[in-house]
């Protein structure tokens, strides 16, 4: 795992160099979903501090282990919720996650407002955007985002930090450049339309396409299988 993390960091550095950006502008999130807590400890020992998970139950379990882990508590790692989120599970997230990347509907945003208000916490969130209008994926279409921001912008416990996308699966990451560029353009436009909002994050790029995503302006990349190895879902559903 150490060498893979080094490779990803080096590739991010080079992609930044090619596009005139600074590597510090890009947060590497290790996607540890389906992997045991020990995988988090190992990645932590190689400098990873941000972990992506897509199931609330897994965040609860791993967060509990983290609370007992004196080795990691001094400079505690953070969890990012990156998977599709059911409304009835939102209540478990306050205090456990640094950011929710997967706000894909207005009712979900309203639920986040409600549950974070109860705990008097502020939720940092990203709106998920279905950049290629794939039927299998959730998220707002690009042209729906402005309306969604309009509807969420005054929620007192929801901090709108930017956008996230899961680009289409492809063998050739260059094919996703157009989608990453479209999301960056959207961010630039929405920053102008909503100057009071703290929109600045673009969570885009995975194992197969993070370098192109960084060239196109990603501030967060979510890299799972390249760092942690292939995921084993047994014969259960994949996600
Ligand atoms: C699983 C997952 C990733 C990581 O995918 P890899 O291809 O394994 O790097 C990133 N983002 C989301 C939303 C995911 O569900």
TrEMBL record:
<dbReference type="GO" id="GO:0030170">
    <property type="term" value="F:pyridoxal phosphate binding"/>
</dbReference>
<protein>
    <recommendedName>
        <fullName>Pyridoxal phosphate homeostasis protein</fullName>
    </recommendedName>
</protein>
<feature type="domain" description="Alanine racemase N-terminal">
    <location>
        <begin position="5"/>
        <end position="231"/>
    </location>
</feature>
<dbReference type="InterPro" id="IPR001608">
    <property type="entry name" value="Ala_racemase_N"/>
</dbReference>
<comment type="function">
    <text>Pyridoxal 5'-phosphate (PLP)-binding protein, which is involved in PLP homeostasis.</text>
</comment>
<dbReference type="Pfam" id="PF01168">
    <property type="entry name" value="Ala_racemase_N"/>
</dbReference>
<feature type="modified residue" description="N6-(pyridoxal phosphate)lysine">
    <location>
        <position position="33"/>
    </location>
</feature>
<comment type="similarity">
    <text>Belongs to the pyridoxal phosphate-binding protein YggS/PROSC family.</text>
</comment>
<dbReference type="InterPro" id="IPR029066">
    <property type="entry name" value="PLP-binding_barrel"/>
</dbReference>
<dbReference type="InterPro" id="IPR011078">
    <property type="entry name" value="PyrdxlP_homeostasis"/>
</dbReference>
<keyword id="KW-0663">Pyridoxal phosphate</keyword>
